[in-house]
Amino acid sequence: MLTSVDSDILKVLGDPLRLKIVTLLAREALCTTHLVEETGAKQTNLSNHLKVLREAGLVDTEPCGRWIYYHLKPEALSALAGELGRLAAAAQETAGSGRKRSC
User: What is the pTM of this model?
Assistant: First the structure.
């Protein structure tokens, strides 16, 4: 069953820009300058979205000189993917089985 943590992460990923940021960070660590170039969003807007992603436990930071690089925390997505996989397996099991609750 999805936990409240899983539910919160799904809400966070429900925003199109945050999902785009996560997709970009899945390929490589990026700083806000890179994210501005890739998304076209304003830096302040990106910073707010990155804060939400960090608070949700999806993104971590790494200082590099005067820059801060952001990278995805794969373990957070793996946990969510595992739970979604279990839901898909349960749905597959019941699909076409005719199993339903009577009214």
Answer: 0.83
